[in-house]
Amino acid sequence: MLISRVPGFFKLSVEERLSLITNKWNFNEEEKKLLLGLTPFPIKIADSMIENTVGLMPIPLGIATNFKINGEDRFIPMATEEPSVVAAASNAAKMAYEKGGFFTSLSGSIMRGQIQVLDIADPYSAMARIYEKKAEILKRCNAKDPTLVSLGGGAIDIEVNVIKTSNQSMLILHLLVDTRDAMGANAVNTMAEAVAPFIETITSGRVALRIISNLADRRIARARAVFSAKQLGGIEVVKNIVNAFEFAEFDPYRAVTHNKGIMNGISAVVLATGNDTRAVEAGAHAYASISGQYRSLTKWEINEDGDLAGSIEIPMAVGIVGGATKSHPVARLALKILGIHTAEELAESIATVGLAQNLAAMRALATEGIQKGHMALHARNLAMMAGANENEIDQIVQQAVKEQDVRYDRILELTKQLQKGVVNGK
Ligand code: MEV
User: How far is the CA of 361 from the centre of ligand 1 (A)?
Assistant: First the structure.
């Protein structure tokens, strides 16, 4: 059985961590080299992914430990340039682990395609005419993606709205497409473009935009977990965390930073698995404002045992087939590490990371602040920049943190002193 609790994982060397992961997933030599960056990412693949490719931009891939999701332990791959994110997620997940971990659900895998129809003389009658032709519209859409239909997905419904702007009325048709294990942008956009001429015929209008909506409100991932008051540092800390949540819930200036912290975890997993970070981010922020005010994506309350109960609700348009999820060799390995078999499991796992990340940030903010935790990591980066080798870094970091002086010039001084000592045999 896979156990995601690995005490001291962070203290291992990169090679030791990788060998632990390798043993769990039976990675072959080629896969190991790929993760370590020893097999360069094929520039041909990079060039086929985007235009005007001139090189690569490596981002560290970390593994968050301690996640238990619906009773199953999972290791979470996270691609991020930001220090503390992986450690914070692992720490929060450790606290949730003690209380059974995370529990999740997904509302479905339905995405919306929007078709904008202009220049209609009678938009409300056109709306009625569209609904009369619903079966034919869905049939034409599904003819474009027989594979999706054979997998149990496809266009399943439509919704029509009339929007009145200051100078015109336009009709907006939503195609509701069950995209199953795909994120769905390709399937939805293809259907929207294909069915547009038929919509013009029905409405006698002119179709302009035909595009997916990233407000994936029919693909909502939910996760919840309980964190013990004792582990969090007592009831006062719990109360402060709830106060921090309420601050975010009612103040958009705070909510945006609070949600940014949630997205630190979410985007890292979305990126690691080759999914579209911008699609998920845009959807998340739009959903945070769905009430008319921008609010927290999480909710925090004190349960009847006096522990902290957290939950998150977030649109999660991610897939495990198509695009970079399949073409990017490291994204494929990330999916393997996660051990998921459906986009549903992936979406739900990602939501748990958002919840964990939020708890970790609020706990730090409600107690000692975030700078202390950042200091050691910052010092580590600076020591590397100053030219300290692997054996010297820890000593320099310890000293700088002890002195509470994490500035580049001081770290450089410490590095030079240490290296001089080593050279002189002191
Ligand atoms: C920093 O990347 C994220 C935080 O600002 C999130 C928060 O304030 O809740 C720490």
Answer: 6
Q: What is the CA radius of gyration of the chain?
A: 25
The residue whose C-alpha atom lies closest to atom 6 belonging to ligand 1 is 261
Residues with Cβ within 8 Å of residue 223, at least 6 apart in sequence: 69, 102, 103, 104, 311, 312, 348, 351, 352, 354, 355
Residues of the chain with pLDDT under 50: 423-426
Closest C-alpha residue for ligand 1 atom 10: 361
Pocket test for ligand 1, best of 82, 258, 262 (most atoms within 8 A of CB): 258
- pLDDT tens per residue across span 311-349: 999 999 999 998 888 889 899 999 999 999 999 999 999
The whole model's pTM is what?
Answer: 0.91
Q: How far is CA 305 from CA 56, 102, 226, 228, 337, in A?
A: 51, 18, 10, 9, 35
For residues 409 and 422, give the distance between their C-alpha atoms in angstroms, rounded to a whole number. Answer: 20
